[in-house]
Design brief:
Blueprint: E1 2-4, H1 7-14, E2 34-36, H2 72-78, H3 80-85, H4 90-108, H5 115-134, H6 139-153, H7 161-167, H8 171-193, H9 200-221, H10 224-234, E3 248-249, E4 258-259, E5 273-279, H11 284-299, E6 305-311, H12 321-330, E7 337-339, H13 344-348, E8 356-360, E9 365-371, H14 381-394
Parallel strand pairs: 5-6, 6-7
Antiparallel strand pairs: 1-2, 3-9, 4-7, 5-8, 8-9
């Protein structure tokens, strides 16, 4: 599971389409983060994952194809349940995790890029991952991994190139399915922007209903032979609910100047759930969000929980370290804060907005993230993240 932000906002932000009079720098936006649910709760589109000898030119390309980040393959291969299902040996597990660790951070940094650049670069990384994993797993293991991937994707897997080929979908069928999936995605986008839906349970219920409706409509486009073929391609059902969605190993805190203590490293945080947040002391959205971090610090035990702030300035006066210290003291910030005047951490995390909040698990992996002011317009974002922190603390 990851946090969703409207990609159009990201693109506008990156292209400096949001301005304050007299400045070319983007200002913080009054937005609320939204949840993008990972299957089986909701479907996503996935770039090709297929047998090593499969030729991509054999199939029609799917328009509007978006490579999901984090990619489900990385989470599946990391999951102990999936490793057991694939009968992976310890050498295979170690080799696969090494390959994933070399790719997932690079992939994660592409998450908010414009569509075409996102797809081009992410597709290259996914193909590299697929090739290297195909050298680790046997053909039978790859076949089962494909099945688990398609199960995770859900009904949208019919537009996965190899599935499209094996189903022998006609151009008319592909067009109809694209329309159905695009309509469903538009409804999800509208849901993400609907600040009136503040209950997370209502959000999940709506997504589940929409998924079931879309699946029924897509299946109706297939003939009986194609429906039977699709069931065979999916393989025997597998419980994906226990698969933890992991984005990547968090980038190291490669900044030398800190306030409220000495430099923090990821190794020092092993065993602790960590909140990493980017802010600027003059950002109004950040100012209204800072008190929630202090409440979390008081709520969760220090032996299992840590907060790390990263102050990345937006204006010239925010580059003054003494002012950063003064404003931090006024806000009651007592946890370590990195001074990121050179944007080293900003770039390492591919961050692009203030405030941004990232949740790291006890092993230093990015598990959830959120863009925007907490509880904007009454949304329950603070409660949601607080619950996720507790879930990560309770994980074994």
């Amino acid at each position: 599971m990851v946090i969703y932000m409207d990609r159009n906002l990201i693109q506008k932000l990156r292209s400096n389409q949001f301005h304050i009079m007299g400045t070319e720098k983007p200002r913080p936006l009054n937005i609320t983060g939204k949840i993008r649910l990972f299957p089986p709760v909701c479907f996503i589109l996935l770039l090709l994952w297929s047998d090593p000898g499969f030729c991509e030119s054999q199939v029609r390309s799917a328009s509007n194809w978006i490579v999901p980040i984090p990619h489900p393959i990385t989470s599946l291969l990391r999951a102990r349940q999936v490793q057991h299902e694939l009968s992976m040996t310890m050498p295979q597990i170690n080799d696969a995790e090494r390959v994933i660790d070399n790719i997932d951070l690079l992939l994660w940094r592409l998450r908010d890029l414009p569509h075409q650049q996102h797809n081009d670069e992410a597709g290259m990384l996914v193909r590299k991952l697929r090739k290297e994993v195909s050298q680790i797993l046997s053909p039978l293991q790859i076949e089962r991994l494909n099945q688990l991937t398609w199960q995770a994707i859900g009904i949208a897997a019919v537009l996965e190139p190899e599935v499209t080929l094996k189903l022998n979908l006609s151009d008319e069928q592909i067009s109809k399915i694209r329309i159905l999936l695009n309509t469903s995605n538009e409804k999800l986008t509208a849901l993400n922007r609907d600040t009136e839906i503040r209950s997370e349970s209502r959000n999940i219920s709506y997504v589940k209903k929409l998924r079931e409706e879309t699946e029924k409509n897509v299946i109706s486009v297939l003939n009986s032979y194609q429906q039977n073929t699709l069931r065979k391609l999916m393989g025997r059902p597998f419980n994906l609910s226990q698969v933890r969605i992991v984005a990547c190993k968090a980038p190291e805190f490669d900044v030398d100047t800190w306030i409220n203590g000495s430099k923090v490293t990821l190794s020092e945080l092993t065993g602790k759930v960590t909140v990493v947040h980017f802010y600027a002391f003059g950002c109004g959205n950040c100012i209204r969000t800072l008190p929630y971090y202090n409440k979390w610090r008081d709520l969760f035990p220090s032996d299992v929980f840590q907060i790390v702030g990263i102050h990345r300035p937006e204006t010239q006066q925010e580059r003054d370290i003494d002012k950063v210290k003064k404003k931090a003291a006024e806000a009651g910030i007592e946890y370590p804060v990195a001074i990121d005047n050179e944007s080293l951490m900003w770039n390492a995390w591919a961050n692009c907005i203030w405030p941004s909040i990232y949740l790291l698990d006890k092993n230093g992996y990015v598990r959830y993230w959120w863009y925007g002011e907490l509880n904007w317009q009454g949304a329950e974002s603070e409660k949601y993240l607080r619950n996720k922190i507790q879930e990560l603390i309770d994980e074994y």
